[in-house]
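Late entry, written up from scratch paper. The run itself happened at the end of the previous shift, but nothing got recorded in the book at the time, so transcribing now.
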Amino acid sequence: MRITVPTTFEDSFLRELASLNKKYPSNQVYEVYGSLPLSILGSARPAKYLPTIDIEGLKQHVALAHELGIKFNYLVNAPSLHNQEYTYEGQEEIKAYLDEIVSCGVDSFTVTIPYLMEIIERRYPDIEVVASTICYIDSVQKAMKYRQMGADRLVVDVEVNRHLHLLERMGKASGIPLEVIVNPYCILSCPYKYYHYTCASHGSQSTVDNEGKGSMYNEYNLLRCTLDKLTDHAEFIKSPWIRPEDLRYLREAGVEYIKVAGRGSPGTDQLKVIEAYMAEFFEGNLVPLVGWPHWQSFRTLPDGTRMEKLEFYVDNRSLDGMMEFFKKKDILCLEGCGDCNYCHRLADKMVKCDTDLEARYIENMKGRLDTITRYEMEKETADASHDRWVKMVEKPK
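Output as recorded:
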């Protein structure tokens, strides 16, 4: 199986991946993906969380990846461009930017916006076009439509990760490879993700009139989805991750690529996750493997003191056989739980934490959410929030 992973833009990280490729010949790291932290197109993460790299550094990193037999996928997967793509000034800057990225030797672009997808397919016919998961490809019809737009590979909506029969039908009907993000930390059928991706993307975009200063990024979405998990532990199980041991189910469904999420995480942490999927085996706590502990962002209390770290534990071995349930039942989770409650029953037994400490986190997070949604923020508080959530990056020359 081909594996695509985020890069830290460190040479040592690429060399570690090359070593893992020698160790695990059956599951190869096929490509790394990433982007400049700030640009006119941006990507689906705010600059605050992204490694700092300039165009020359990108060119050198791509060259080293190729030397080690690894391809490079460049992300232009923002779901909104402030409509700059329809102005003369915006189009000129976008063309110049794409030309510069292509000159670095990238092998493919991951794209969300259909208009941009068709432009890239026409302008750079030798570059592979990958339809982003933010295209929300969750049906045979969408899969076929995106192929018609010029996509060469489809990263499916995470909502259908465990719908094995649907994945098989989507792959056969579209006739192009499918890619599944195996460690998403989103809640299932997340009502915040459309807005969250848009906010995050603007946090890595330089508009034609803001001198490359980037945009504000707020913690609202992160608070909301995290609270959903802490107040209903079934969300940990419902979240559509696929364990390393269960890659065979994707393989049997015809999925050719898996994608490991984690841009912005330390390389050492990423390598542990990547190796687990290459080995198709993992022992220990599944929670850090399939998502970063975002509740830790809300440890600070109003008086400035910090609570202890809240840890969740799910023994990976306790979930052996879980995917067999989804395969045999051909469960369509998007239709709702109904009287199934399989994930709730698993969560009651498997998800463990310090419930007293968790209650304190929940109380603190509700207070912060109340401050945000009352829309009565003092200017000093707003300025401090801006400094916390915006990373100032020099606009690429």
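The longest strand covers residues 28-34.
(Scratch paper discarded after transcription.)
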